[in-house]
Amino acid sequence: MSEQTQPASAEAYPFDPAEYRMGESIGYLVARAKNVLSHEVEQEVNCLDITHAQATCLMMLAAGRGSTVTDLGRELGTDMGSVTRLLSRMEKRGLIERQRSDADRRVVDLSITPAGQALLDELPRIYCRVLNRHFHGFSATELQTFRSMLHRIIGNSSG
């Protein structure tokens, strides 16, 4: 069976090209939802004089989701050059510090400064305010199911 031939089982391949409609595509809708949420977070963090990308980096660093440029680039799904420029702006603002690793001089470790921590303390309220607006009316069960489905999508990734 070629890669383009799908088995008869709708369970194995629930999406049919003959039925595909861009505006109802799950990928399209997930991307639109992400863009709506990102735009609103961007508007909200503007009062802190940071960008959504900077807020995300602070949150990832604080959560231990990355401590190097490579880690953050992988987690953000972006190139190292973009992450390096973002971190340079954050360092210039005094939000983070970069320090060469003692174990491997090629590695630059990242840490949050007290100024970055002060902003970080505000971010959960901002993120939750945006999420509460957009998930109004969803039950706790629906939210857990949605979260579980997103984890499954991510887990099915081969990359």
Automatic annotation (TrEMBL):
Keywords: DNA-binding, Transcription, Transcription regulation
Leader sequence residues: none
Pfam families according to UniProt: MarR_2
Positions of the HTH marR-type domain: 23-155
Protein's UniProt keywords contain RNA-binding: no
InterPro entries reported for this sequence: HTH_MarR-typ, Tscrpt_reg_MarR-type_CS, WH-like_DNA-bd_sf, WH_DNA-bd_sf
The name this protein goes by in its record: MarR family transcriptional regulator
Naturally occurring in which organism (per UniProt): Cupriavidus basilensis
